[in-house]
UniProtKB/TrEMBL annotation:
InterPro entries: Papain-like_cys_pep_sf (IPR038765), Transglutaminase-like (IPR002931)
Source organism of the structure: Methanobacterium spitsbergense
Residue ranges of every copy of the Transglutaminase-like domain listed in the record: 21-88
Matches recorded under Gene3D superfamilies: 3.10.620.30
Protein name according to UniProt: Transglutaminase-like domain-containing protein
Length: 113
């Protein structure tokens, strides 16, 4: 992001070269949105630590450098990565929710046995 921009402005985070590079590296072996979105979600869940500091506003740089953020900041990071891949964010969220529902839902698991 250009230095003159407000460091807390996440609106153009999807254009940040680090976001683009990270999203592309996470999804380099994925072909479809259905594969890319869960890969990004799992990457953030595995590599970033959630902190419970309410009412904080960390910049993209702080979140990426410290690998920590609150729910909103980590969600913004995921949205920025999905958007950087030219995937509609609403579609990405729907894919993520469907993936979580069927991957971690005990009823779905038991019905497949």
């Amino acid at each position: 992001m250009p230095e003159q921009q407000n460091q807390y402005n996440w609106d153009n985070a999807y254009q940040d070269p680090r976001i683009i590079e990270l999203a592309e590296s996470i999804t380099e072996d994925k072909e479809t949105s259905w594969d890319k979105c869960p890969a990004i979600f799992c990457y953030v869940q595995t590599n970033y630590k959630w902190h419970d500091h309410d009412n904080t506003e960390c910049s993209l740089n702080e979140v990426m450098n410290n690998k920590t953020g609150n729910c909103c900041e980590l969600s913004r990071l995921e949205i920025a990565m999905v958007t950087s891949l030219d995937i509609d964010v609403e579609q990405g969220i729907n894919i993520q929710m469907i993936t979580l529902l069927f991957t971690f839902n005990p009823w779905a698991l038991s019905s497949t046995i």
